[in-house]
Amino acid sequence: MPSSLESLAAFTQDPALASQAAARMEHLRLHIADTLGMMLQGSLLEEGKMAMALGSPLVGWCASARLTEADDIHLTSCTTPGSVVVPTALHLASVGLFETWGDFVTAVLAGYETLIRAGYAIDGPRILAKRIWPTLFAAPIGAAAVASRAWRLDPSETAGALAMALAASTGIAPAATIPNSSRCISLGSAAEYGVLAALAARHGALGDVQLLERRAGRIAGVRISARRLLQQLRTRFLFDETGLKPYPIARQALAAVEACRQLVGGNTKGISAITVGVPSAQGRVIDQPGWPSNRMQSIAGVQYQIALALLSPEQLMKFDRTPPFETKAIRSLAATVRVRAAAQLEDRYPETWPAHVVVVRSGERKSTLVSIPRGDARNPLRWEDILLKSAPYRLALEAIRTADSQEPIPSLVLNAYRRRFAWPKT
User: Fold this and answer.
1) How many Cβ atoms from other residues are within 10 Å of residue 291's Cβ?
2) Residue 174 to residues 66, 132, 177: CA-CA distances in angstroms?
3) CB contact at 8 A, 337 and 307
4) What does pTM read for this prediction?
5) Residues 6-18: what's their mean pLDDT?
6) Alpha-carbon distance 62 to 106, whole Å?
7) What pLDDT, on the 0 to 100 scale, is given for residue 348?
8) What does the mean pLDDT of the chain come to?
9) Digit-coded pLDDT (tens) for 317-366
10) Is there a contact between 75 and 119 (Cβ–Cβ < 8 Å)?
11) What is the DSSP string of 320-358?
């Protein structure tokens, strides 16, 4: 009987993976384009410039995509797979490892599905509360899946690569909101290790394919469910449940911001209190009542994001928030926002990340519940939204939209990764 990693490797190298429904392929194009846009946007930020200066393109690009906090996200695994999978695939494409666009997209799909399943197997939304970062934990095995497909490894070599990659997983990194955090660089390094694991397998050095069985499903103290890892492996693509963000924000806060915009509109006069009720796991991430001192705090804190959305919504699209945008009115409105644990929403989590918001204005109380905000896979962004998010790079993103599966990867896309393209005005 094959081990869990052997079963996953067989799926990764299955030729049928290249034949997907048109809707799934379109979804992949959208996520690849969005992630490329976030890579380029993030590389312009001070943190991104520092990451890019380290000398490893893959580390720099992964970090740049993730630190935007506007990349894609899968809820029930609590992973942001695009920030690892797409830079890894582009890195390998830049050295000529994919013959066609179709080969590239298939490897991206293999990486998405592997990374998401690893996060799902460790119950990412719950383990995040234990300060284990699910995306970091799953990054090596996700990158290894992409690279194994790129190098056309056989299933046994692929299993060895996945095993070597998974054995290095810890999920431990500093919080994103502390000054000078190396969190996103850790993510890029994990992706780089996954590529190394596939390269090692290509040269005959394999990990233990019985890794999960021999270690009773535990790696670095983290419990990995083999059942969840392989659940409906060939009949359900978890990638299909991956959503996108309309602007930089902690996804745990998105429903609350949308609910406030529905209740308040553009008139904040007379508001005396805003109460945000969310599942407790969400609240631990977004309840940051103090005034943000850096960009990441402004993105994570629901108090600031709500005030920004209601008073200066154009600022939501700003990636560079150093220092965070500030007015007296925004400070005053943010101070009215309180976060509480909503017991009635606990059973909805993590399939949805909902928010029940109550606004008190001039003594009148109004409330609403938002469970599926704009950007969720069930309420998806469209191409026009993605192109708006990354307007300076529209030409490269349009090339992804129209690429032919039988043709080489568009040069606009590869040049964007290599940073040799002078972006014309559109």
Assistant:
1) 16
2) 14, 10, 9
3) yes
4) 0.96
5) 97
6) 19
7) 97
8) 96
9) 999 998 899 999 999 999 999 999 999 999 999 999 999 999 999 999 99
10) no
11) --SSPP--HHHHHHHTTEEEEE-GGGGGGTTT---EEEE
Q: How confident is the model at residue 422 (pLDDT cuts 50, 70, 90)?
A: low
223 strand-pairing partners: 218
For residue 323, cis peptide bond before it (omega within 30 degrees of 0): yes
Q: Residue 340 and residue 390: Cα distance in Å, rounded?
A: 34
Q: What is the pLDDT of residues 186-214, one digit of tens each?
A: 999 999 999 999 999 999 999 999 999 99
CA angle 317, 250, 370 (to 5 degrees): 95
The packing angle between helices 155-167 and 4-12, to 10°, is 120
Q: What is the pLDDT of residue 426?
A: 46
In which order are the strands placed within the sheet that holds 355-361? 337-341, 271-278, 355-361, 364-370
Residue 269 burial (10 A CB sphere; 0-12, 13-18, 19+): exposed
At which residue do the structure tokens 């996953």 appear?
8
Residue-wise DSSP of 40-53 = HHHTTSHHHHHHHT
Do you find a cis peptide bond into 350, omega within 30 degrees of 0? yes
What tens digit of pLDDT does each residue of 220-245 get? 999 999 999 999 999 999 999 999 99
Structure tokens at 37: 């846009």
Could you read off the pLDDT of 49-99 as tens digits, one per residue? Answer: 999 999 999 999 999 999 999 999 999 999 999 999 999 999 999 999 999
Environment class of 53 (CB within 10 Å of its CB; exposed 0-12, middle 13-18, buried 19+):
exposed
Q: Are strands 337-341 and 271-278 parallel, antiparallel or unpaired?
A: parallel
Which structure tokens are listed for 106? 């298939």
Write out the H or E segment, with its range, that includes residue 249.
none
Instruction: Assess contact for 269 and 358: CB atoms under 8 A.
Output: no
